[in-house]
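Hey all, quick one. A colleague (J.T.) asked me to put the copper (II) ion job into the tracker so the inputs and the structure tokens live in one place instead of scattered across chat threads. No bug as far as I know, just bookkeeping. Sequence used:
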Amino acid sequence: MFLTACGDRQSALHAHGANAQKIFDLIWTFSAVAATVWLLVVLVLATAVLRGNLAKASRSPLQIDADQERRLTRAVGSATALTVVVLIALTIGSFFAGKSIASLSGSETVTVRVTGHQWWWEIRYPKTDSSQAILTANEIHVPVGESVKVKLDSLDVIHSFWVPSLAGKRDLIPGRPSELTLTADKPGIYRGQCAEFCGYQHAHMAITVVAESREAFDAWRSRQDANAVTPASDEERRGEAAFLGTGCALCHAIRGTPATGTVGPDLTHVAGRRSLAADALAMTPGALAAWIADPQSVKPGAKMPRIALSADDLNAVVTYLGSLE
Ligand SMILES: [Cu+2]
């Protein structure tokens, strides 16, 4: 297919959950109705052009035929009425699709809070009976087949949460929390994107949703529950010291260490994520080094400054962060 490059990781045309399916059905209804109307209009237009050419030969354009005028008025009147009926029908269809999406809420088994930042997503799972509250970034995990409540808020400007294969868009407006319900009906990795222009690095503000079995989700959650692993080698210890000593800790938290900054993503389990800096880079040691050495060349304007580290310190920090799974 000519759209294969788009894949189905991030596509409203590949719905993988009830919320997205309802929107997909609506897209098809609108497209089918619009295509039918367009075909009819083109047919009528073509007929009119052909018939007009024939009539021109036999009659003066100023000659008015009262009967024909009446017929034309009726035809145009009926077409206008039909247009209004179609518009009303589509409006009602879209209203009920919205209502049925809203009715998905109420049966959620998992809640996740998403806070928009320029240009990354803060992800928080509130405390449950078996687990403490957890804080992570840019990657949401959900158990497949279960309803998930996503609570949305922003701390700076307006962002929009959009994972097209799973749900419709929802804006994150500072001070005006909102929410949506989504279900992933197939295990997989779904990509989403900020869908409201939010500044320089808006295009590099992607989010990943990992839909996995209940067991895998619980295992992930209990890994997130744990504090960061303590450095096991000299290199990792050196990395931790450099991290704590050069200002990283002013902006980043690593649970279990004195680092408690909240300006940037929580790094307690950073190496367990699939990507870096809101999917700007894949999670590899090389990418981690490139990001820390010069975040501004990866995401110009990003709210993380370039911090001069010696090559050895940089390597040690990368080794240390790479151990935080
Ligand atoms: Cu944004």
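Adding what we noticed when we looked at it: The CA atoms of residues 135 and 200 lie 25 Å apart. Residues 116, 159, 194, 198, 202, 205 surround copper (II) ion (CB under 6 Å).
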